[in-house]
Amino acid sequence: MSDKVFNDIWNRAKHIASPYMPKEHAELLYRTTLQNPGTIVEIGSWHGRSSVILGSAVKSSGKGHLYCFDHWNLIEGAECIMSQDIWKIWNDHIAEWQLQEVVTPGRAYSQKAVEQWPADKTINLLFIDGWHEYLESGPLIIPAGDIKEYGIEGWLKDGKMIPPHKHQPSFDRGAKVDFDVWAPKIETGGILVMHDLNPDFPGVLKVWQEDIEPSNEWTIIYNENNIGVAQKSK
Ligand SMILES: C[S@@+](CC[C@H](N)C(=O)[O-])C[C@H]1O[C@@H](n2cnc3c(N)ncnc32)[C@H](O)[C@@H]1O
Question: What is the pTM of this model?
Answer without folding.
Answer: 0.97
